[in-house]
Amino acid sequence: xxxxxxxxxGYAMSExxxxxxxxGPATSRVAYAAAHVVAGDESLDWDATLAFRRHLWSYGLGVxxxxxxxxxxxxxxxxxxxxLIVRSGEEALSAGGRIVCGAGTDQLxxGPATxxxxAAAYEEQLAxxxxxxxxxxxxxxxxxxxxxxGPEDYAAVYGRLLAQVGRPVVLHWLGPMFDPALEGYWxxxxxxxxxxxxxxxxxxxxSRIDGVKISLLDAGREVDLRRRLPPGVxxxxxxxFNYPELIRGDSEGHSDALxxxxxxxxxxxxxxxxxxxxxxxxxxxxxxxxxxxxxxHLFETPTYYYKTGVVFLAWLTGxxxxxxxxxGLETARSVPHMAGLFQLADAAGLFPDPDLxxxxxxAWLTVQGAA
Length: 371
Hints:
By secondary structure, this protein is of the alpha/beta class. The chain has a domain at 27-278: Aldolase class I (TIM Barrel, Alpha-Beta Barrel). Helices cover 44% and strands 13% of the residues. The chain contains 14 helices and ten strands. It has helices at 46-58, 78-95, 115-131, 142-147, 151-162, 191-204, 219-228, 243-248, 266-277, 281-288, 291-298, 306-316, 335-347, 354-367, and strands at residues 2-5, 8-12, 31-34, 62-65, 99-103, 135-138, 169-174, 209-215, 234-237, 256-259. The longest helix has 18 residues, at 78-95. It is globular and about 60 Å long. The protein starts with a strand and ends with a helix. Residues 1-26 are annotated as: Disordered. This is Dihydrodipicolinate synthase/N-acetylneuraminate lyase. InterPro entries: Aldolase_TIM, DUF993.
């Protein structure tokens, strides 16, 4: 089948790569896909949003709910987020799926907040997450980044939260490429100093920390942090550029995964992880290899607009009936970017129904005046 794309007239589409749902989750690595949300007319399209989570669970992946992939801080308000957490928590219980949920401070108004207000906002969100039996992820807070005068303020807020959680939680270091408002998180723009502050916090509260998600797009720094973690604390890679090598690991250890890119590549990710379970590193590399150029394109600068590509691919693959996003974010990427995304997803064999993908791509290009 051929399709005319900007810069690639007569592009010949590839055959899809079929990966059947496995019997259960992979066992050698813990893996979560940060899931997107499907916009509705007034709120979310709950049927499509929850159906996509069932899709992820069917491939043995855990769901990372209400994270930045779900447009936290980019269109999704706390009222809707709270409902999303409750509904997804109930769905996880019904499906027997693993779930972690992001706790933040985004119910606070924009602008200055005190450390007391920030801690109380985290506590409100933690209570909702713990009420549905999910593992909390203490997300990086824009309010805390603005209010903190140094690492001691981060230690005070996080220490207060960790002292009261009912189960071990996941910490979250989201770099400024994902959210510029988080520059200087952990008390310094010097990444060595920030890493030291984070490791000191983890060392003091290790029994209450399941792991830490690192989203810095810096494989070397992630490996260094991984090797310095206390025993029993996981490193969840959030590196959507270098995930195959970080998950594979080396003789000194490996990263587990909490990744936005696992949303669009879930079947391939599950197949690769099961190959790793079997010690078949050749198949692991062969399956993951074609997804890396796609991921690097998806997360190219400005990285925080990767969500637009994630939802576009969900539409092209038939997981939702429209390409609209909360807050109108569907307009955030250019036509050439989206055309390139289509080609890279096709090259990775990610379109289970090439006819549908081509039909929808042609329709979208027509609306953009690029057909």
